[in-house]
Design a protein that fits this description.
single chain; 205 residues; alpha+beta; five-stranded mixed β-sheet; 20% strand; disordered C terminus
Length: 205
């Protein structure tokens, strides 16, 4: 079972609602204008062990588009430095899945939709599809799996190539507190989580 039972669900609720609205808006726009340019919410399999849901595929530009609802803080960071690296990995994995389903892919696109602000605040990042990036993400996943399989019942979490970050608070295995990562969960980036959610909300193990 998951460890991170206390995480505030509101960002995920808002994100799901925005994705649902955007899907309906795109499809309604196409219906009104007799268009079939975009396909919405497509299930793709970039690998036999990985399934994802592509938000939007552009038939004209052969582009995979992924919506991201972001906080004002993350939007500011996006404007300064571009989208986080794991978002780039994700959209390239979706592109790999689309390509394996015989949809040509030339571009990948990330659209940052602000959770607070205006449509003019949106940020759009466009790049060539990079299959090597998708493959590297899959290699990392299988590398971690192989480490765990070799360890068997004698797990040593220090050998797993994971780096705590400000995203730890969204991980299902994040438990906060102190100490090493073990079967009870991972302490992650405790300082970042406490700063985000407020002291006292992170339950010590």
């Amino acid at each position: 079972s998951e460890t991170n039972w206390w995480s505030d669900p509101l960002p995920a609720i808002v994100g799901t609602a925005v994705h649902s609205w955007l899907e309906k808006a795109v499809n309604r726009f196409q219906e009104v204008h007799y268009m079939t340019r975009w396909q919405t919410e497509i299930t793709v399999k970039p690998d036999e062990m990985v399934t994802g849901h592509m938000d939007l595929y552009d038939n004209e530009l052969n582009a995979v588009i992924d919506w991201k609802t972001v906080s004002p803080t993350k939007l500011k960071a996006w404007k300064a430095d571009g989208p986080p690296e794991h978002y780039k990995d994700q959209v390239n994995l979706y592109a790999r899945g689309a390509q394996l389903a015989n949809a040509p892919v030339r571009k990948v696109v990330l659209v940052a939709v602000p959770r607070s602000g205006w449509l003019r605040d949106m940020q759009i990042w466009v790049d060539d599809y990079r299959p090597e990036r998708a493959q590297a993400a899959l290699n990392r996943m299988y590398g971690i799996a192989n480490v765990l399989i070799k360890q068997g019942d004698d797990l040593s979490f220090e050998e797993i190539p994971a780096v705590p970050s400000g995203e730890c608070s969204f991980c299902p295995w994040y438990r906060g507190g102190a100490g090493r990562a073990d079967l009870s969960g991972c302490p992650g980036n405790t300082d970042a989580a406490k700063a985000k959610y407020g002291k006292g909300l992170v339950k010590d193990a």
